[in-house]
Design a protein that fits this description.
Number of strands: 2
CATH class: Mainly Beta
Bound molecules: zinc ion
CATH superfamily: Zn-finger domain of Sec23/24
Strand content: 5-15%
Low-confidence stretches: 79-86
Helix content: 25-40%
Shape: elongated
Strand order of the largest sheet: 1-2
């Protein structure tokens, strides 16, 4: 067995130790029993973001999206129609 890697749960932010050979076998969180890898982006607050960055031994991809940008994205179809509204 190889050295375990630390993987922070995207659901409860608990740090799990997962043997590297089990990373592709759908490991679940030891605390909340949810899958550690969901295949979807996770929205994080500041504390959860800090934990994900500081406590993960696996790469973390970050996409920063401000509130204004997110609000515009939510209204994307309306904006693309030249502001005519849905
Ligand atoms: Zn969890």
């Amino acid at each position: 067995m190889s050295n375990p890697l630390r993987v922070v749960c995207p659901h409860c932010n608990a740090t799990n130790r997962v043997p590297s050979e089990r990373l592709g076998q759908g490991p679940k969180c030891g605390q909340c029993h949810q899958p550690l890898f969901t295949g979807r982006p996770v929205e994080l607050n500041e504390a959860a973001f800090a934990r994900q960055i500081a406590s993960n031994d696996i790469p973390v991809v970050v996409d920063f999206l401000g509130r204004l940008v997110r609000a515009l994205s939510d209204d994307g179809p309306r904006i693309r129609k030249g502001g005519q509204g849905p």
